[in-house]
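Researcher: I'd like a candidate sequence for this fold, 208 residues long. If you have to choose between options at a position, lean toward the conservative one.
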């Protein structure tokens, strides 16, 4: 096993475990026939190249990676409605299998790029063969519209090596506002949408 495999092993374990746990929450809501505040969950371990770029950018020495790069293990929870985000955050606060270290609300305080999301940094204990290892993981919680925007902006950032031309930047900022407006509109007809979803699900179940 090389140095990076060894370093990343607890992070890989944590991402797999957390994906199961968070997807489990979604399943529990579905079983109880409640609206699930969780639409879907994804997770990834940050690639070594990205860890090195971030460390370089933020002047973080190799011995401080574990503490200072908080999203080596990253989970993402997508929600249908903005209100669902607080419900999910509360669900996370109520758990006792990890400890919340920090919360960053980029919904009330959007980033200059237009980025909106709620970040929760947790300390998660992983059971390894040589004992328990506590690692940091970042859970990003956002609506489907916020996720759509962030995914597009992330690929443009990659394409332009972090230097998106001003004209495109402006369009992205406007698109972020449009996405937020879409979320607001959907929230206004939330009850109507949820009723339709329950009706749709019932009908599908009886016809199966
Ligand atoms: P990747 O490829 O997603 O892993 P900083 O990076 O300094 O802004 P910090 O302290 O690392 O911030 O924490 P923050 O901002 O809570 O979390 C960083 C992560 O949030 C990023 O990870 C992205 O996933 C997401 N993010 C933050 N700002 C933006 C943005 O403007 N646009 C998009 N698309 N995503 C953003 P990485 O490491 O950038 O990359």
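Model: Candidate sequence:
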């Amino acid at each position: 096993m090389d140095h990076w495999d060894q370093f990343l092993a607890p992070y890989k374990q944590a991402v797999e475990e957390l994906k199961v746990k968070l997807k489990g929450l979604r399943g529990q809501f579905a079983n109880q026939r409640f609206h699930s505040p969780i639409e879907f969950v994804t997770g990834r371990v940050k690639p070594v190249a990205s860890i090195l770029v971030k460390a370089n950018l933020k002047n973080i020495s190799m011995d401080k990676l574990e503490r200072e790069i908080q999203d080596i293990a990253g989970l993402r929870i997508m929600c249908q409605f903005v209100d669902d985000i607080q419900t999910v955050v509360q669900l996370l606060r109520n758990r006792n299998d990890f400890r919340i270290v920090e919360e960053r609300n980029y919904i009330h305080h959007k980033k200059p790029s237009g980025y909106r999301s709620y970040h929760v940094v947790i300390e998660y204990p992983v059971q390894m063969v040589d004992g328990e290892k506590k690692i940091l993981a970042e859970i990003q919680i956002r609506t489907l519209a916020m996720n759509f925007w962030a995914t597009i902006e992330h690929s443009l950032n990659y394409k332009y090596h972090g230097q998106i031309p001003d004209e495109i930047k402006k369009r992205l900022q406007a698109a972020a506002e449009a996405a937020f407006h879409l979320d607001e509109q959907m929230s206004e007809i939330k009850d109507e949408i949820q009723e339709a979803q329950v009706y749709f699900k019932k009908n599908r179940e009886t016809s199966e």
